[in-house]
């Protein structure tokens, strides 16, 4: 297991404590201070942290230290198990109506991402064979209806709207009738953002619920939400009885402690997570991965899974060898970018590698965005084989020719060459660290999986 | 009783309980002791001040108590409030001016309230006699341009726009040309929400900045980062990365009409020294106020 963040701190704590044999109360107390800090820094609500830490402590004190694990690892193991356990199992299914149409209602604060999530959900469910209808019930925010209509158009999924002069209840009722007539078996209702303390607006949702008897009420929550996640979730749950939660904007660098807070107060499952602005960026929720993320241990599992699914093993072995030797050419660079791209957005991959998320050099590699990859490819393909093998020899006039040939600019060519150089340097450093060259760094021997990589 | 139920019960009482608790804690007490400090620390953490900043504040508080030989628990709360107020600066929320026109670029992650804030800002300055123009440089999100136009009509200011999907820097350029030609006092430019970790999208902001600076020296005179008060510690990362990319000069903290306290701005001020200039307290056109550190510090505890 690779640890970063909390794990390193715990190693440190236990080094000081030099515990043997059995975890004493004093050991565990020290460790729990670090656990508390890590959870609070991840925005888990402080009350939730309190109960959680008490529970972990209870479990940890008096445990035999297993010979296979260090005390730090053992505490981490307990913390992870408890965290993942509390966040529930994987459950990305919606409650379906025995007699269609199934009615789903999206609720949440302003700016949480309800409209986008409604469209993403419609898209996902269509892939599973449903015939969704989107319903525009946000009659308050300027241009909210138009926003849903545009998204519907992009997806080619119908959007039901009646402008902003009818009540949400009237619109939603008419929409369900419309769906029944049109043979639509899934009705997804977008509602306006509202504060959980706004009595009038919360009453409106209750009316909507009473009128529609939705099969699923989904609370949409921004993953960056802080301590008040508990107030929000609790109030929405009390007033409406939630069936599930969608956590949005997880493609950023938030630890997402709100997930734990929300689960703790509502008890209802987190069903989906939003991981990007594109309309297919909605994924099932994985509690174990979320636990690692909250603890700052990187989303190693996701990466491993993705890597296993998409890497071409032989090619990777060859690349790894090249990276470690110095003859890494522009051809290899291109090949490598394409391999990495199969894993998903490059930045997301980097953020998933524990301990690497903050490395400046890697961030620069992340500058090669997916959209940019098209240019990179065009540029490298416009070079002669000799140039690709001798990147240092590419002078000004060659650069201009390459820019013309690839339909880009000299600046773009320069930046590709710069990124290549940085990547090459970084790869070499990583390879050295992996060989145990630099102490303190715990990195996989290769950035890419292969049979000699301990990570995979 | 299960873990969840126990938790739920304790949480439901937390909010209402907290104010009272602190009051009781402080007024009902004879001595300043460890548990009192602990509860104060919890109040700070519960307001999203963040664990490190809270610990530091508590440390300073303890030191002050010692230095001033304080014994009366009633003195703690005002003292802590004072510390926080000092942290937050003078509260001079006036915008940097230049031009004319003064160019204001508004940035932030998705859904924090950028467009709404622009509507409110336009209203704020218009009612103070300024000629304001808006630039619709969010060409990415569906119906973002319509949203800004509706705000423009509501406030009675013009909006310069291109079509959806066009180059935001080109919109900014045209908006600046128009603002000059029409002798505007102020140009406010809306941008698409973006996560601060997406470097290609941050590049796009840099480009907008460059284009503005080339056309009018000193522009943008103000880069306002809009932060949602419900955001937790991630706001620090937002502030840092948006600053690196665009040189943020001020913060607008929105959605303070909810239960959120927005305590994270204390950490931002300490680490990055970015002042808060305005706060958003609702969806209406008048729901924008200049930031007042004293009031803010007091509100952290209620
Ligand atoms: N309660 C409350 N709601 C607000 C406040 N400011 C903005 N909002 C609401 O928050 C939601 C999102 O606001 P927008 O202005 O669209 O946010 P944005 O940052 O422009 O969003 P994108 O352009 O999609 O990134 C809207 O429903 C606004 O009405 C505030 O101070 N209080
Ligand atoms: Mg906007």
Automatic annotation (TrEMBL), chain A:
Keyword set, alphabetical order: Cytoplasm, GTP-binding, Hydrolase, Nucleotide-binding, Ribonucleoprotein, RNA-binding, Signal recognition particle
EC numbers on record: 3.6.5.4
CDD domains assigned: SRP_G
Superkingdom assignment: Bacteria
Coiled-coil stretches noted in the UniProt entry, renumbered to this chain: none
Subcellular location as annotated: Cytoplasm
GO molecular function (one): 7S RNA binding
List of residues binding GTP: 108-115, 190-194, 248-251
InterPro entries, alphabetized: AAA+_ATPase, P-loop_NTPase, Signal_recog_part_SRP54_M_sf, Signal_recog_particl_SRP54_hlx, Signal_recog_particle_SRP54_M, SRP, SRP54, SRP54_GTPase_dom
Region (Disordered), start-end ranges: 433-456
Catalysed reactions, semicolon-separated: GTP + H2O = GDP + phosphate + H(+)
Any one Gene Ontology cellular component term annotated for this protein: signal recognition particle
Domain SRP54-type proteins GTP-binding positions: 269-282
GO biological process: SRP-dependent cotranslational protein targeting to membrane
This protein's domain notes: Composed of three domains: the N-terminal N domain, which is responsible for interactions with the ribosome, the central G domain, which binds GTP, and the C-terminal M domain, which binds the RNA and the signal sequence of the RNC.
Function recorded in the entry: Involved in targeting and insertion of nascent membrane proteins into the cytoplasmic membrane. Binds to the hydrophobic signal sequence of the ribosome-nascent chain (RNC) as it emerges from the ribosomes. The SRP-RNC complex is then targeted to the cytoplasmic membrane where it interacts with the SRP receptor FtsY.
Subunit structure: Part of the signal recognition particle protein translocation system, which is composed of SRP and FtsY.
PANTHER family: SIGNAL RECOGNITION PARTICLE 54K PROTEIN SRP54, SIGNAL RECOGNITION PARTICLE SUBUNIT SRP54
Protein name (database record): Signal recognition particle protein
Species of provenance: Desulfofundulus australicus DSM 11792
Upper lineage: Bacteria, Bacillati, Bacillota, Clostridia, Eubacteriales
Gene giving rise to this polypeptide: ffh
Automatic annotation (TrEMBL), chain B:
Catalysed reactions, semicolon-separated: GTP + H2O = GDP + phosphate + H(+)
Topology term for the membrane: Peripheral membrane protein
GO molecular function annotations of the record: GTP binding; GTPase activity; signal recognition particle binding
Binding site for GTP: 108-115, 190-194, 254-257
Top-rank taxon, per record: Bacteria
A GO-annotated cellular component: cytoplasm
Top enzyme category: hydrolase
UniProt keyword terms in alphabetical order: Cell membrane, Cytoplasm, GTP-binding, Hydrolase, Membrane, Nucleotide-binding, Receptor
SMART domains: AAA, SRP54, SRP54_N
Localization annotation: Cell membrane; Cytoplasm
SUPFAM superfamilies noted in UniProt: Domain of the SRP/SRP receptor G-proteins, P-loop containing nucleoside triphosphate hydrolases
Biological process, per Gene Ontology: SRP-dependent cotranslational protein targeting to membrane
Main subcellular localisation: membrane
Stretches assigned to the SRP54-type proteins GTP-binding domain: 275-288
Pfam families in the record: SRP54, SRP54_N
Similarity-based family: Belongs to the GTP-binding SRP family. FtsY subfamily.
Assembly behavior: Part of the signal recognition particle protein translocation system, which is composed of SRP and FtsY.
Its job: Involved in targeting and insertion of nascent membrane proteins into the cytoplasmic membrane. Acts as a receptor for the complex formed by the signal recognition particle (SRP) and the ribosome-nascent chain (RNC).
HAMAP family assigned: FtsY
Protein's UniProt name: Signal recognition particle receptor FtsY
Organism whose genome encodes this protein: Desulfofundulus australicus DSM 11792
Gene: ftsY
């Amino acid at each position: 297991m690779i640890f970063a963040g909390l794990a390193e701190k715990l190693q440190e704590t236990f080094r000081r404590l030099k515990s043997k044999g059995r975890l004493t109360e004093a050991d565990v107390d020290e460790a729990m201070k670090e656990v508390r800090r890590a959870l609070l820094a991840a925005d888990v609500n402080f009350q939730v942290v309190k109960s959680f830490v008490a529970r972990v402590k209870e479990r940890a004190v008096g445990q035999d230290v297993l010979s296979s694990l260090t005390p730090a690892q053992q505490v981490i193991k307990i913390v992870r198990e408890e965290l993942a356990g509390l966040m529930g199992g994987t459950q990305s299914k919606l409650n379906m109506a025995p007699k269609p149409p199934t009615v789903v209602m999206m609720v949440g604060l302003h700016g949480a991402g309800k409209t986008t999530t409604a469209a993403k959900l419609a898209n996902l469910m269509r892939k599973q064979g449903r015939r969704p209808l989107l319903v525009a019930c946000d009659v308050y925010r300027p241009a909210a209806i138009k926003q849903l209509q545009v998204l519907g158009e992009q997806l080619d999924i119908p959007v039901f709207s009646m402008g902003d002069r009818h009540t949400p209840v009237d619109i939603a009722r008419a929409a369900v009738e419309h769906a029944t007539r049109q043979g639509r078996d899934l009705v997804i209702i977008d509602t306006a953002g509202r504060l959980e303390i706004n009595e009038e607006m919360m009453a409106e949702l209750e009316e909507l619920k009473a009128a529609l008897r939705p099969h699923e009420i989904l609370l949409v929550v921004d993953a960056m939400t802080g301590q008040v996640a508990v107030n929000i979730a609790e109030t929405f749950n009390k007033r409406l009885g939630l069936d599930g939660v969608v956590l949005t904007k997880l493609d950023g660098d938030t630890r997402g402690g709100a997930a734990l807070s929300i689960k703790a107060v509502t008890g209802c499952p987190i069903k989906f997570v939003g991981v990007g602005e594109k309309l297919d960026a909605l994924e099932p929720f994985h509690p174990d991965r979320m636990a690692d993320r909250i603890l700052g241990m990187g989303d190693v599992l996701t990466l491993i899974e993705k890597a296993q699914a998409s890497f071409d093993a032989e090619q990777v072995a060859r690349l790894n060898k090249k990276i470690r030797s110095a003859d890494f050419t522009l051809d290899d660079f291109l090949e490598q970018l394409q391999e990495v791209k199969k894993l998903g957005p490059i930045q997301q991959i980097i953020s998933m590698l524990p301990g690497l998320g903050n490395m400046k050099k890697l961030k620069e590699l992340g500058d090669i965005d997916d959209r940019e990859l098209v240019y990179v490819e065009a540029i490298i393909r416009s070079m002669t084989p000799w140039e690709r093998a001798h990147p240092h020899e590419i002078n000004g006039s060659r650069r201009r020719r390459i820019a013309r040939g690839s339909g880009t600019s000299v600046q773009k060519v320069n930046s590709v060459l710069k990124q290549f150089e940085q990547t090459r340097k970084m790869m070499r450093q990583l390879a050295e660290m992996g060989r145990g060259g630099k102490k303190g760094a715990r990195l996989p021997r290769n950035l890419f999986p292969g049979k000699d990589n301990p990570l995979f | 009783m299960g873990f969840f139920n126990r938790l739920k019960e304790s949480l439901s009482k937390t909010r209402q309980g907290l104010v009272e608790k602190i009051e009781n804690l402080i007024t009902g007490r004879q001595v300043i002791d460890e548990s009192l400090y602990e509860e104060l620390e919890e109040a700070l953490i519960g307001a999203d001040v963040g664990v490190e900043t809270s610990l530091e504040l508590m440390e300073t508080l303890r030191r002050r108590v010692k230095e001033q030989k304080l014994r009366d628990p009633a003195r703690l709360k005002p003292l802590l409030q004072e510390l926080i107020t000092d942290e937050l600066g003078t509260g001079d929320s006036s915008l940097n001016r230049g031009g004319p026109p003064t160019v204001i670029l508004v940035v932030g992650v998705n859904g924090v309230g950028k467009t709404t804030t622009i509507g409110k800002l336009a209203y704020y300055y218009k009612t103070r006699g300024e000629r304001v123009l808006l630039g619709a440089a969010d060409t990415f999100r569906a119906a973002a341009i319509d949203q800004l136009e509706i705000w423009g009509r509501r406030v009675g200011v013009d909006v310069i726009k291109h079509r959806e999907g066009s180059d935001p820097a080109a919109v900014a350029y045209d908006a600046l040309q128009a603002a000059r030609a029409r002798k505007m006092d102020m140009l406010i430019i809306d941008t698409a929400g973006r996560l601060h970790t997406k470097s290609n999208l941050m590049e796009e902001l840099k480009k907008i900045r460059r284009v503005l600076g080339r056309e009018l020296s000193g522009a943008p005179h103000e880069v306002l980062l809009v932060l949602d008060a419900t955001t937790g510690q991630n706001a620090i990362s937002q502030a840092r990365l948006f600053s690196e990319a665009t040189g943020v000069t001020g913060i607008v903290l929105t959605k303070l009409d909810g239960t959120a306290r927005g305590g994270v701005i204390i950490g931002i001020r300490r680490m990055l020294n970015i002042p808060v200039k305005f706060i958003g307290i609702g969806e209406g056109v008048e729901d924008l106020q200049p930031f007042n550190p004293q009031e803010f510090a007091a509100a952290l505890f209620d």
